[in-house]
Amino acid sequence: MLEQRYRWKNKHLRMHVSVLDGKTSPTILLKNALYLNQTFRKWMRGNIWIYEDRIVYVGENLPSHIESCEVIDCTNEILVPGYIEPHAHPFQLYNPQTLAAYASQFGTTTLINDNMALVLNLKTREAFSLLKDLRSIPTTMFWWCRFDSQTEILNEVEIFSHSNVKSWLEHDAVLQGGELTGWPRLLNGDDMMLHWIQEAKRMRKQIEGHFPGASEKTLAKMMLLGADCDHEAMTGEEVYNRLMQGYIVSLRYSSIRPDLPELLDDIKRLGIEAYDRLLFNTDGSSATFYEQGMNDQMIRIAIEKGVPIIDAYNMATVNIARYYNIDHLHGQIATGRVANINFLSSIENPTPISVLAKGEWVKRDGVKVDDTYPPLNWQEYGLKPMELDWELTMDDLQFSMPFGIKMENSVITKPYSIAIDVSGDELPHDHDECYFTLIDRKGKWRINTLLKGFASRLSALASSFSNTGDIILIGKNKQDILHAFNRMKELGGGIVMVENNEIICELPLHLSGIMSDLPVEELMVQEKGLSEELLKRGYSFSDPIYSLLFFSSTHLPYIRITQQGMYDVMNKTVLFPSIMR
């Protein structure tokens, strides 16, 4: 389906009408259902006719022909629209297809996805081929169009060229520009970025901000320049300020920022009683954070915090659909919408017992329906195991930089002066400093420093998972670092931990070294194992996966290790350039 510009071809629309005329039988009839009607803001009873992937009627009438129709008595069930995740980063070890399959079991049937990993790692033709093929899965997949790399890469002008950005913006599956991690450039006069925003607005597409800690004046400026929504509010006051400046505010509950409970308390304290400009998002959490659910968890928290129940459901459904101008297709149980429907055991329990996605059962009576998300041939899109044609040697592990990187939490890093002897092949375990290298996946350059605060007893870790797909090496023993790298190379990419020349744990990432091809449930087991081994060796923060991802991310303060070298975020300066090998 969705193989052309229009959601349904003319012949499909005529067939939908013929169902109402009694000439064609519906494929599914949901009788006497208590469902959420968001037009009237009421729970109402009605009959829901579905033909293939579309709701063709909701009301009191019953079809005259049901000879080839699955008829379900919904007297004892509650129906709500499928949930929408407006801020998915579908490459946090998992991949877009496995995330969609997993999320569907918790009622999230529409994902609006970051395109960063696709832009950085695939050719545009390959990426668009993947987008096309993902339209055939039960989950509805929409996308963003990034305007910057979120780091300092060597070929940003080429990757984020005007032609590339424009081709993404013009794609039918793209609903927004952003998120605007490079907004300081915009304020400082980047007219190309402003032109892309203008183009997005011309196409009636939204602009997602990224404004942590932004002042009222900055928020106002960004609204004038075209921003529509922001997901970085960390206090009720920040929610209030964004609402005052006309923003849609996306409330976050993620693995590194589980802010939602406190935000809802603050919203209540501040007397905010209108919820129609508020959305929910999980901001690309690590796999294990989703163990207990996805957007259903956010609805549950909101209900527990006293948010009116219909508003709690609306923030995960129709509010998002209206904001993105897709409410004619999504976010409601109403005539003409895509048949994404969650079946609940009670109004207060948003985790569905059964799920319809595009009219297809993906969960039935609490059990996952098999084979609804068949595996993709990832190599067709250029996503295959890494092939490194170069060797890492002890010469690459020479450390002489006068300062290193100190971790303040999972993702914030500051510079610090190195005061220990780094000339040997091993660092002692009586401190929390490790050798730290970022090296080009093609073997052309590297940058070496020390990392403080990541772990105190970590012998070696090699990771091809990073913001740019380059290789991260961390540890206290150079020989073990070489071993970890070589094992990662054998795997075709992944995260490998070595100690005393033995592999402690490994997490293969067969899709270009950046994503796993395993189901999320299996990936969780591997991710937990990695986290547990790191905790044993002194990692003390909340999310090691995000730590690895954000070492190069220049949208966060204060010091970053990037392709260009050691980068001072606040002063936008390369302090020490990367070294050619």
Automatic annotation (TrEMBL):
Looking up Pfam families in the UniProt record yields: Adenine_deam_C (PF13382), Amidohydro_1 (PF01979)
Question: InterPro entries of this UniProt entry?
Answer: Adenine_deam_C (IPR026912), Amidohydro-rel (IPR006680), Metal-dep_hydrolase_composite (IPR011059), Metal_Hydrolase (IPR032466)
Keyword Hydrolase listed? The answer is yes
Coiled-coil positions are none
Q: Using the record's annotation, list all stretches that form the Amidohydrolase-related domain.
A: 78-362
Query: Which N-terminal stretch is annotated as signal sequence?
Result: none
Catalytic function, reaction form: adenine + H2O + H(+) = hypoxanthine + NH4(+)
Annotated ranges, domain Adenine deaminase C-terminal = 411-572
EC number per UniProt? 3.5.4.2
| Keywords linked to the UniProt accession | Hydrolase
Which GO MF terms are attached to this record? adenine deaminase activity
Domain of life (superkingdom): Bacteria
Q: Which family does it belong to?
A: Belongs to the metallo-dependent hydrolases superfamily. Adenine deaminase family.
Q: What is this protein called?
A: adenine deaminase
Gene label: yerA
